[in-house]
Amino acid sequence: MWTLSRIAVYPIKSLDPVFLEQTKIRPSGALVGDRQYALFDQAENVINGKKYPDIHRIRSQFDLAQQTVSLSSPDTSPQTLVFHLIEQRTELENWFSEYFHQQVTLKENSESGFPDDLAAPGPTIISTETYEELARWFPEITVDELRLRFRANLEFTGDFPFCEDRLYSTTDSPVLFQIGSIILAGSNPCKRCVVPSRNPLTGDTDSKFMKTFIRKRKETFPTWAPLELFQNMYRLAVNTRLSRQPNEHSDMMRVGDPVEFLT
């Protein structure tokens, strides 16, 4: 039986995660609090790890109950400063503006957040076994660091590496699965950018990471997985959609919940 083992939300897109014991899901499919905020540069483009590698050097800690974020970076000052996400928005934007050397705006979307895949804005999901397999491909990278590189929302204890690839299909009927009282539909394997090839704390890029990943993914690709959904092999984890509208008062998923196939 598959079991949910970890829940991660990223309150500000591209910054550090918060690990939770339980969470609810919004009608859009996004986990409550995930990518609720995002930074935008002076050209109104989102500031993310793909475009701004220096963002990896920012350390952030969130208190979701108090709605605060603690920020520090060796590029500015080792001093940690605490900001209220709402009441100190101007001060917070000034901190990011100084860091990125341009005017930065912090925007909020409490309904759907700022997902990468607009067609499948639900939580991304991956198995612990997959992370452990990747750690064998890259012995210098720990499982915990791989979590920070690939930034999945949900992690489950499965039965073999890449078993999460069973959560989507090439047919018109999506694979439905349930965690707690929340029903999700698997959409597609998550397309990757340059971010996983970088050290998540420094932003330094390993020039061989992508080539090694693609080569090993080809060598270990499951015979039962839908190859036609892999335009290239640089894909990992599963994008999802919400299958039905949640009940905001009762729908919940918790660490320890079974991950059960419905179709």
Automatic annotation (TrEMBL):
Pfam families: MOSC (PF03473), MOSC_N (PF03476). InterPro entries: MoCF_Sase_C, MOCOS_middle, Pyrv_Knase-like_insert_dom_sf. Residues 94-262 form the MOSC domain. This is MOSC domain-containing protein. GO terms for molecular function: catalytic activity; molybdenum ion binding; pyridoxal phosphate binding. It comes from the Bacteria. The lineage of its organism: Bacteria, Pseudomonadati, Planctomycetota, Planctomycetia, Planctomycetales.
